[in-house]
Write a structure and sequence with these properties.
Helix content: 55-70%
Structural class: mainly alpha
Number of strands: 0
Oligomer: single chain
CATH superfamily of one domain: RNA polymerase sigma factor, region 2, helix turn helix motif
Order of helices and strands: HHHHHHHHH
Shape: elongated
Largest sheet: none
Number of helices: 9
Low-confidence stretches: 1-6
């Protein structure tokens, strides 16, 4: 990835940056699809609704102002999803397959409420999806040995001395592997839409 001090959100605001939009789509599509499906949207309508959400993000970014608090973009995106889902189910002749209108509205209201368990689940899943993307972006830059050492120690919580012995490496080599990968993850994170202060915990 091209190194840049601009966050993804600022790159998107500048206009014609196809790489930034590809990254935005790849970063958020899996998360949005999961939540669209949670609200009973059929496969035939899934892509159209996803495009509506992303189009709203595209047009809304010009006026979006980050307040500096962790999770501001995450909350903004959640609200866009809620509004698009609400419009979708209010459209003529659309009815959920497994739930009536009142149940859909109740669940949307819960997702909209930042204090609800549903909203907090959105926050956790958002962070996990973004962490997964960070890992995928970084993995190809390291040897399998370095990546294995990192994942065993940093992600799986194994003791560095045991990992070193089993992999036939020095303890210092394990710490260097972990440090190199974490450094790369932080570089990738800087260019994302948002970097929450407590996310992810391994960083």
């Amino acid at each position: 990835m091209e190194s840049t001090s601009l966050t993804l959100i600022n790159r998107l605001r500048l206009g014609e940056d196809s790489e930034a939009w590809v990254r935005m789509f790849g970063l958020y599509r899996p998360l949005l699809v999961v939540w669209i499906r949670k609200f009973g949207v059929q496969a035939a309508d899934e892509d159209d609704l996803l495009q509506e959400v992303l189009l709203t993000v595209s047009t809304g970014l010009k006026s979006f102002e980050h307040n500096g608090r962790p999770g501001a973009f995450r909350t903004w995106l959640r609200n866009i999803l809620v509004n698009r889902l609400r419009n979708f189910w209010r459209a003529r002749d659309r009815r959920p397959l497994a739930a009536d209108d009142s149940d859909i509205e109740r669940r949307l209201t819960q997702l909209e409420d930042s204090a609800s368990a549903t909203s907090q689940l959105w926050d956790r899943q958002h962070d996990l999806f973004v962490l997964h993307q960070l890992l995928e972006l970084s993995r190809a830059r390291f040897s399998s040995e370095t990546w294995t050492a990192f994942t065993r120690v940093a992600l799986h919580g194994e003791r560095p001395d045991i990992v070193a012995r089993e992999m036939g490496l020095s303890l210092n080599a394990i710490f260097i592997a972990k440090s190199r990968v974490l450094s790369r993850l932080r570089q990738e994170a800087v260019s994302l839409v948002e970097w929450a202060g407590n996310f992810p915990t391994i960083l």
